[in-house]
Amino acid sequence: MWVQRFLSRSAGQLKTFSRQISVRIVNETNIEVLEENDRKPLTFPGVWLRDNCLCEDCFHGSSKSRKLDWDNFDTRIRPVTLEANEVTKEVKVKWSDSHESSFSLDWLKERSFQKERQKDYLREFYRPATKHWSGAEFQEIARHFSYEEVMSQDSVLMQWLQALAVYGVALLRNAPLDEGVVRRLAERVGFIRRTTYGEEFVVQAKPGAQNFAYLSLPLPLHTDLPYYEYKPSVNILHCVVQTDSPGGSNMLVDGFHIADILRRDHPEDFERLCRVVVDWNDIGSEDGREFHNIWRAPVICLDAEGRYTRVNHSVPQRDSHFNVPLAEVLPWYESYARFVRLAIADSHAFKTRPGDVLTFNNIRLLHGRTGYDDSEQNPRYIVGAYLDWDIIYSRLRVLKKRLGGGKI
Ligand SMILES: [Zn+2]
User: Into which family does the record put it (predicted)?
Assistant: First the structure.
C-alpha cells in the first residue's frame, strides 16, 4: 500500500514548492517512489538500496566509498517500513536487519532503473555515444579548436574531448612550433602515456629506422601498437614542419564505420573478423632496450553488449605466427582483405600545417600517410604523444559535472 505524508499540506507556503511523495513496498523486496504528477513510479530493488546505504556505518563519505560489511551481507534483505519526507525530500527505510537508511529523492532519481534514464546516463556521462562517419563526411564532422583556447578555457577543453570521444578525431589549430606542445596538451588533460617508443616521439625520416613509421615511404593505414594489451588510446600529432613535397598527407578512416558496412553488407566477414584471434607483434630495440611485444586479438573487438571497443589493423605488425585452426586461415584472409579494401576506399587524405595538432582515437580510426620526398630542403617534422581514454573520460566527466553539458 502507498504510504503518504502530508507535511507540505500543513506548511501552507511550502505547498507550491513541494510535491507530494508516495512510497510503497512491492513484491516484498522492492521500493516504489512516486512523486506527485509523475505518471510512473520509480522502482528500486531493496537489496540494491541496502547495499548502497549512505549512513556512516555503511558509507565512507569523504572517499565516496562503500564500507558495508559484505562478508555478512544478506541478499534476502527486505524493507519493513517506509517513510517519505516531502520537506527534506528524503525516503527513510527500516530494514529486516533492523538497520535504517535514508535516501534523498535526487540521489534516487539519478540512479533510476528506468531503461531510458540508464541509457541517458551511459550516453551522456559514462562515455559519449560514438557517431560513425564515412570519408566523404570528414569535413562535416571534423571539429577545429584553437590550441590556446583549449589550454586556457575549460569549456573549450571539454568540447575538444567531447568531439574526440564522439567522432574519434579533432584538430587543434595555431599551436606554437616548439617541441613541448604535445606534453603540455597531454598534461592539460592528465598525463602522457609512455610506450616502448618513449613519451614524446618524433616522426621524421631516420636512417636505419627501428620502426616502419620512421621512413619517408607511404605508410599504409594502421592502428598504432596493436601488439599491446593495453593500447595507447589517442594519438596526438603536432605538425612542426611540413614537407613542401606533394606527399606527407595524413590519411584517416573511421574503423567503426567500416565495421558498420561489413556488419550490414557482409555479415559473415564481420562475424569472422570479430571472432578470429590474430597475433600482433613488434620486435626491436629502442634506446638500447630490446623488446618483443605480442598481443592476440581480433581485428574488430566487441564488448559484452556487442558494441565496438576497438579495431586492430597493421600490415607490418601482424605476426607470422597465426595460431588458428588451418580451416580458418583462407576465409580469414578473404574477410580481412575486404575490410582493408573498404577502409582504403573510404580513407580521407589531408595535409596538416605547421601549428596543427591532429588528435584521433587510435583504437578506432585507422591512420596512414602518403609518401613524401624527404631531404634537407624538404623536411617533415611531427612530434607525437599518446593519451589514454581512462584519463580523457575522467577529465571529461569532471568538467561536465563542473560546467554541465558537453553534447555534440
Ligand atoms: Zn547504513
Answer: Belongs to the gamma-BBH/TMLD family.
